[in-house]
Amino acid sequence: MLSEYVVNDRVKNSGNDNWRPKYHFTAPVSWMNDPNGLIYFKGWYHLFYQYNPKNCDWASMHWGHAVSRDMIHWKDMPIALEPDRDYDNDPEGGCFSGCAVEKDGLLYLFYTASAKHGNKLYQTQCLATSRDGVHFEKYAGNPLISRHPEGALAPFRDPKVFSASGKWYMVVGGTVKSENPEGDGRVFLYESEDLYKWQYKGAILESKGKLGTMMECPDFFELNGKWILTCSPMNHPEYNKALYCVGGMDFESGRYTIEKMGNLDVGFDYYAPQSFLDEHGNRVMIAWQNGWLWMPWCQNWGPTGVENWRGTLSLPRVVSLSENDEICLYPVREFEDLEDEALEYENYEAGTQRQYLYPADAKSFRMELKIDVEKITSRYLEIGVLGKGEKATVIAVDLLQGIVSLDKSRSDLYGRGRMNCRVEMKDGKLAILILVDHSTVELYINKGRHCITSNVYPEKEQTECWIATPYKNAVIDKIRIVSLKSFWE
To answer: CB 3.0 to 4.6 Å from 483: which of 148, 251, 361, 472, for a disulfide?
Structure first.
């Protein structure tokens, strides 16, 4: 049985770890980035991820592996893919990101092999298969796609495979030559009858100088009759790290018509999202909850290396479309199983002095606020979490302008900045879900129509949670605060 191969049962935050989350996935040790190969296969959810098992720096990418029955409680498995072939064995390369599909009871892992021969970079699309979801064998005919399309540059990676119209398709991120020396981003489309032989169909997304220089980790799926394309652009002019497009797709011609474009999460730390179908047919998305040093706000990796880990994955989020065909993301229902002690307040009156709230676990909780703007005379509302004195991560709500902000300028010593999000207040109502988990703070506004995610690194004594208004009072319809258990326990 698959459970026989569990490497260990971890209990997080039982020792000296201050920043390791309780309900967000982290690798057992060392470096982790993009989620890979998300799939429900033979009764188990499989999570693969970019992994360097040797230390807390990015290098020599492997595929780490974990499994779950519910997408919340995870068990570590043996490493799935190691860089051990000429085409993927490189200290600055390895088995890069990819995906998983099932066909005839066989699990197929598609990944990018990245290696340098001489001074030349080779990124090719490769395959490994498994019958039990534990042992993986690389295809003897690798690479499946040995070169990038004509006119494209060497960065050519992160395959996502899916079925449509009786065929298999693959999207791959890339870039082409342009006036910008770093290139102009593209998402390329391939077609196959058997998952082994692939034919190039064209580019379904072109930056044209407006969307970024390289489209990493593309995903393409159907939702409510629309085709959704997501990717993480490098060097997007407006710093969109998790771009989504909604539109229509003609697979015969390879033409994608974009009707709407937006941002999956406007926070500092939400990158390389990948989606899959859960056992009930819901579209679920998980992302790497970190950033790269080339991002202007990412000053360093933070302090978690002293705890011998680095990198966090987001909670699984259900993907839906609003009535205006805008993407909404919200934590999966299974997340509620972690709820512990709860505090509830109705018609809560906040004033100009901080009023402190006391969750049972001040570093691991969820807070829900329901606000009727018509009942509030104050323009501003502030909620502080992970605080001590003047230190805190502050969620600020401008009720007049309709702007919700996450301000981490006083959170810690490792990063600065404030992300603003303009929101719609339907019928004068605003709902905010705040998730706090040791080193992560997330906001879900109006059931996930807007999301703001960021990492913070408070000191151990930063345990205060408070609410205040700069002037006048504010009556909040409802506040519910629930402490959360570790999913490793």
So the answer is: 361
